[in-house]
C-alpha cells in the first residue's frame, strides 16, 4: 500500500508518518515543501494541473492531509486551510479518484459548545475567528469532492513533542524557562475554559484506522479525548510534573477564542462505531510524555 502524507514535518504529520511506517507492506511517501520530500508539494500555492501530475507520479492508494496553518493572518490561513484541500481534491479527482483521502480538520470548526453537552458531528458549526472558519471551509471542500474521503475533526492535541504554538507546548516551554524556584512567576491568560485534549499518538492511530478501513466512512469523525478538561487543571498538572514551586498568575491577555469558546468537548461515539477507535492514553500520560520528551539529555 502506498500512502502519501502531506505536512509530514509538522507536529501531527510527524506522528502520523511514524505510525504508518510501522505497518507491514506499506510505503509512506512524504509530500511537502522541503528539499528532502519525496514529492515537492505546497498546497497553498500549487498549480492544480502540476499537482495532478505530481500525484499521478506518486500513485497513492491513500492520501493523508496533515498540512494546515494554526497561526497567521486570514489570507495565510485561507491559502493553507481552504485553498489547499480544494486544490488537493481537484487533483485527486483527475488522476487518483479511487484513493482514500484522510483530511485533518479541527474541533474549532464547531465554535462555542454548550456546557455539559459533548458535540456530535451533526451539530451546527459556528467557528470563532479565521482559523476555525478556514478549517470549516476546507472540510466543506473535502465533503463536496465526491472522493472516498473522511475528515477527522481533531480536538486539542497534546503529548510528546507538542509545539509552543499550542497551549500545552507553550506552557511546558514557559515552565522550563521559569525554572522550579519559589520566586518564579508564570503569567498566563484566563485558564477557566474547558477543552477536549487528545494524545497525538491516539490521533495517529485514528489516521491509521481510517486509511485501512474497508468500505466508505462517514464524512466527518470527531477525534478527541471525549472529556472536557479545565485548562487550569492541565496547567497545574504540568507545573507539578515540572516541580514548579512558584506562582501561576492568570493576568496576561487571553486570546479572543478563549474568551468566546468557554466549553469544548467532542462526542467520539461515531469514531468508535466506524473505526473501533478510542483514546488509549490518559491526559496524565500525555503530559508526562510532553514534559519528559523535552528534557535535556
UniProtKB/TrEMBL annotation:
Domain NAD-dependent epimerase/dehydratase: 3-224
UniProt xrefs under Gene3D superfamilies: NAD(P)-binding Rossmann-like Domain (3.40.50.720)
Family that this chain belongs to: Belongs to the NAD(P)-dependent epimerase/dehydratase family.
Protein's recorded name: NDP-hexose 4-ketoreductase
Provenance organism: Streptomyces davaonensis (strain DSM 101723 / JCM 4913 / KCC S-0913 / 768)
Amino acid at each position: 500500500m502506498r500512502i502519501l502524507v502531506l505536512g509530514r514535518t509538522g507536529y501531527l504529520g510527524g506522528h502520523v508518518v511514524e505510525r504508518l511506517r510501522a505497518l507491514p507492506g506499506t510505503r509512506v511517501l512524504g509530500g511537502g515543501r522541503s528539499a528532502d520530500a519525496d514529492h515537492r508539494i505546497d498546497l497553498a500555492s500549487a498549480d492544480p494541473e502540476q499537482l495532478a501530475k505530481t500525484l499521478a507520479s506518486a500513485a497513492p492508494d491513500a492520501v493523508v492531509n496533515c498540512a494546515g496553518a494554526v497561526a497567521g493572518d486570514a489570507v495565510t490561513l485561507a491559502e493553507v486551510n481552504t485553498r489547499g484541500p480544494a486544490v488537493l481534491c481537484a487533483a485527486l479527482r483527475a488522476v487518483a479518484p479511487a484513493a482514500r483521502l484522510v483530511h485533518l480538520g479541527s474541533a474549532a470548526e464547531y465554535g462555542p459548545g454548550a456546557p455539559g453537552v459533548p458535540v456530535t458531528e451533526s451539530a451546527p458549526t459556528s467557528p470563532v475567528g479565521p482559523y476555525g472558519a478556514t478549517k470549516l471551509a476546507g472540510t466543506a471542500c473535502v465533503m463536496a469532492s465526491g472522493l472516498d474521503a473522511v475528515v477527522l475533526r481533531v480536538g486539542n492535541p497534546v503529548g510528546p513533542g507538542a509545539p509552543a504554538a499550542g497551549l500545552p507546548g507553550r506552557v511546558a516551554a514557559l515552565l522550563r524557562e521559569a525554572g522550579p524556584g519559589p520566586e518564579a512567576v508564570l503569567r498566563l491568560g484566563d485558564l477557566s475554559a474547558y477543552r477536549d485534549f487528545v494524545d497525538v499518538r491516539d490521533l495517529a492511530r485514528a489516521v491509521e484506522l481510517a486509511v485501512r478501513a474497508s468500505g466508505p466512512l462517514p464524512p466527518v469523525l470527531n477525534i478527541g479525548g471525549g472529556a472536557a478538561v479545565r485548562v487550569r487543571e492541565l496547567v497545574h498538572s504540568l507545573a507539578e510534573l515540572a516541580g514548579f514551586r512558584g506562582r501561576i498568575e492568570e493576568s496576561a491577555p487571553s486570546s479572543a477564542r478563549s474568551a468566546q469558546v468557554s466549553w469544548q468537548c467532542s462526542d467520539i461515539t461515531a469514531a468508535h462505531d466506524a473505526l473501533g477507535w478510542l483514546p488509549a492514553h490518559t491526559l496524565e500520560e500525555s503530559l508526562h510524555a510532553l514534559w519528559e520528551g523535552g528534557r535535556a539529555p
